[in-house]
Amino acid sequence: MMEAKKEIIFDKLVYSCAFQQHRGLEEFISEHFLGFQMSGETHAFDANGQTVIKENSFVLVKKNQLIRTMKYPSSSGKYQFVSITLDHEELRQYALENKIVLENHHKTKQMLFLEPNDFLSSYFLSLSPYVNKTKEATPRLAALKIREAIELLLQINPDLKYMLFDFSEPFKIDLEKFMNQNYMFNVSVAAFAILTGRSTSGFKRDFAKIFHTTPKRWLRERRLEEAIYRIKYKKEKPTDFYLDLGFENLSHFYSAFKQKFGLTTSELLSEN
Asked: Which H or E element spans position 174?
């Protein structure tokens, strides 16, 4: 079996391909992106649950969120997903040139499915020479493809401007609630800070006030609490859930578990 590959064709165009079920890493989505599921399915997990991106689906994914993915090949045995990042600077420039000013802010979904149409199909077809390496994209051409995507999205739904051109800084959100919903994502403290509307130093300061410890220590403790619950009461095996709880590998999990509880997972199970 071939391993999954993720290729950056040019700065903002990403092609992902796999020939067997593949677990993606946790990702901090820092920019909006437009994606097309060419073959197979992507199962995306966030704090609110699971979303399935089916074959031949077009999806617009909102910036500033945490997502974990599972990639499933189609019946023909191949998984392909291509996406283009709607670069923050390109969006700003577009808004300036077209005098786009948002009077108010609309709350938009984290992920929007777009009705398939000839324009979207043609757009992604126009990217295939770059994906297939038959044509090389210059920085200028890459910027034009991003502009084309923006034009296309606004043509499909003018209200998408409330998502695309919202340049306001994320406001401070409830840190305790957010961390208890998202502790299982293995991302940096800097990413958690952005997602809660804080600088890294501000995040650490507020975190200490609420939890009376450091983010790193709290995350380890919270993940281990969930682990012992899953082992004792849900009878799950660590091999089935350690990645879901944000542990980098199984040996890291076993070491942290023994250090915290003074016994191995096998010894814990034999006690019950």
From this structure: none
